Amino acid sequence: MSRARSLRHLAPADRPGDTLVALREDGSALHWGAFWSRVGAIAQAAQPGRRIALTAPDAADFLAGLLGLLHAGQQVVIPANFQHASVAQCADSCDGVLDTNAIRQLPGVETWTPAAPLPTDARIELTTSGSSGTPKPIIKRLIQLDAEVLAHEVQWGALLGADPVLATVPHFHIYGLLFRLLGPLSAGRPFDTAVAATPHALLNRLRALGRGTVISSPAHLSRLDDLLDPAELAPYTTAIISSGAPLGADTAATLGTALGQAPIEVYGSTETGGIAWRRQWPQAGSAWQPLPGVNVAVDEAGVLQVRSPFADGDTPVATGDLAEVLADGRFTLRGRADRILKLEGKRVALPAMEQRLTEHPWVAACAIVLLPGQRDRLGAVASLSAAGQQALAAEGRRAVADTLRTHLLAHFERVTLPRRWRFPATLPYNDRGKLPLDALQRLFEETMTP
Known about the structure:
- The protein has 450 residues and is an alpha/beta fold.
- It has two domains: 7-291, Rossmann fold (3-Layer(aba) Sandwich); 344-442, GMP Synthetase, Chain A, domain 3.
- It has 14 helices and 23 strands.
- It has helices spanning 32-45, 59-71, 84-92, 100-105, 142-160, 174-187, 199-209, 218-221, 224-227, 249-259, 350-358, 386-395, 397-409, 437-442; strands at 20-23, 29-31, 51-55, 75-77, 96-99, 123-127, 137-141, 165-167, 191-195, 212-216, 237-243, 264-269, 273-278, 289-290, 295-298, 303-308, 313-325, 331-336, 340-343, 346-349, 363-370, 378-384, 420-422.
- The protein has a nine-stranded mixed sheet with strand order 2-1-9-8-10-11-12-13-14, with helices on both faces.
- Helix 1 packs across helix 2 and helix 12 crosses helix 13.
């Protein structure tokens, strides 16, 4: 495998033309020479405009489009997802659009090579997940993404080796963009263009490719052992990387036991980039280790502050997460600062209430939210276990809600308990593996009891 290269300085001459870049489900592949021919075609054909929406769902097309637009001096705007409404909204806010058809119809430019390295201030606009509020646009400079990709290689390059990269997550958010596309491009690892949406699809792709690193999320990993024996993945899995939310300790232990290694969890955000990593097995609840170049501290309110070359360098960025920094430089997370509320004059930490609720044998997973327009009322969204589903069928919604309220009453004052309950089959995770606040709150919009 070629030594990892700065994204800014990548050029056709860096690798042989037959080096694999991307692998497809139909058995075809995109090679280095053809990839740069496509990048060159896009760079030469780009129309004048400051902001160009890149709306290519195919990962290989998207990556070629990204580099081509950046080499043409454009600011690349990535939609929140590739659903029609999001793409249309993104396109309406931009000076132009580069979509799949445009990319594939351009004739390749065989002899093209960049005239100069990409500028450090080349800009890519992404959208936050909305897990803690309304999604918002965030501009990342190429130098920030470049620094993070190279830091990942320092941290995990030897472990990942030359094996291909597969994913259960898309590439339009910062996690998928970095780990699924930009990291492999820099390091010379091929990536799979398919998104393995189910455990069996993932297993089939791993078998087809022989072995690979899996880029995933807790939303996917927590359901793996419901549908297959995780030990089936072991012969084909180089490593599993997870981000989007903390991975449950039980899931980490299950996968660690089955694979001989726990998933690598990465903590970060669109604003900060990656902050830290950990493995929870065999040591459950392991503290977070900052990534190379990242410095952390807490302010007087206990909120984690980050100084990082993946964000604004020397300017500390507040994460909104409560934390405790340990003597060895690692840290533990204590929940969101904005998820500690006062209800009827009583202080209540929503993460602590969620943790207590999941301790009940009827609850598989849950989220507790402040009800929209009702400042002093909470709503609980609980995905029930098999035992909980049996109780729901036998006793009804109100009885199940009353039982769970009684369980919480052993730990919290009555005035702070959730007033309304929803019992969906699964929590409404989005394709980023996040729980958007608005999706949770929408569950309470219809009139329903209790």
